[in-house]
Structure formats: C-alpha cells, structure tokens
C-alpha cells in the first residue's frame, strides 16, 4: 500500500464523524470526554426476531423511541458466555462494519454523523453457532449526550435439525406436503 493512501486511511479513521474509533471497541464510548447519560435511553436496539435458525441473518433496527435523533452508533453482539463480540455485521446504508479485537466485521458504526431516527442492519452468527445472543449499542446524540452499551432483548439461535425421518415422508403425504411447502416458502 502506498504511504499516501495509508496516511489518508489513518486520518479518516481518526475522524469521529466517519464512525467510531478503534478505541471504542473496548469501552463502547465515543471518547469525546463527557460522561455517559445515566437516564433511560431515548434510543433502542431491536432485533426484529427473537429466534433464528443457525447460519441465518438476524435483522436489527436501531430506533429512536422519542422525537430525538441520534448521530452516531456503535454495536456489537455477545453470547451470554463471552465478553468478546461474536458474529459479523453487514449494513448497506447509514453505516459500515468495523473489526474489533482481531476479529472481522464484528462491530458496526455510523458512516456519517447526520441525524437518524432509524437504522437497519444485519448480523450473522458465527458458523454453526447455537445459543443465546444479545446486542449492545452505544447511541450518540451529540458531543455531550450519549448512552452506552444499551442492551437488546435476547435472540435464540437454534439448531437446524434435518429430519431423520425424511425417508418416510414419501409414504406420508400430509407431512411430505407440509415439508415441501416449508422448503418452497424459504426459497
Ligand atoms: C452518571 O453516573 C456516574 C456515576 O455516578 C457519574 O460519574 C456521571 O457523572 C453521571 N453522568 C451524568 C451525565 O450525570
Ligand atoms: C454457555 O454456558 C452454558 C451454561 O452456563 C453452557 O451450558 C454452554 O455450554 C456454554 N456455551 C459455550 C459455547 O461455552
Ligand atoms: C445535546 O442534547 C441534549 C439532550 O437533548 C441537549 O439538551 C443539548 O442542548 C444538546 N447539545 C447540543 C450542543 O446540541
Ligand atoms: C404420518 O402421518 C400420520 C398422521 O396422518 C402419523 O400418525 C404418522 O406418525 C406419520 N408418519 C411419519 C413417518 O411421520
């Protein structure tokens, strides 16, 4: 990589308007030098499902529940057992994925600090992960007002069982039909 590009990337990474800094990985704070708000957050992190089959995406909404806007956000996913973020985020507009603790895309942050009332993103569990996860999000309203590590409701990532009786389905028309409808419905 040429040095000019490297310098440019470093300069961009330092500029908070373009998303959270690497330092936010550990603290989940924006590092503006103000204390976090202790009151109820006007912003919530909302998985759009409470249960998902392993190896599939969890859609997540970051939403204002008042008339307030947020400018910045920083989100990570945790299993109940682990203090390290897990899985990968993808986000089309309003944000970018970010890599923390030598992971890959295991966090997400805003792209520009304009006013937002709702942001959609997706999270993919680690390959074959099964268990309970929750999301933690820091919302930044402005330089002095931010809410740290707001916790979501849990999402259960459940195992996909390939029915062992699949061979019998051809001899059981109602169950076979139900499975066919299920499979076609998923495509
Ligand atoms: C929140 O509580 C902590 C600990 O009591 C305090 O240090 C901090 O100043 C409080 N934040 C605000 C914005 O008042
Ligand atoms: C997580 O913890 C539960 C109980 O505390 C345990 O049964 C489970 O095996 C653990 N999962 C992992 C991946 O460590
Ligand atoms: C930041 O947000 C707080 C809470 O809504 C508000 O009272 C304050 O005036 C805002 N500060 C700036 C600089 O806009
Ligand atoms: C086929 O369906 C019947 C009910 O119509 C059920 O009693 C039976 O257990 C099913 N067979 C298999 C192999 O699932």
TrEMBL record:
This is Reelin domain-containing protein. Residues 6-170 form the Reelin domain. The keyword Signal applies. Residues 1-15 form the signal peptide. The keyword ATP-binding does not apply. It holds the Pfam family Reeler. Keywords: Signal.
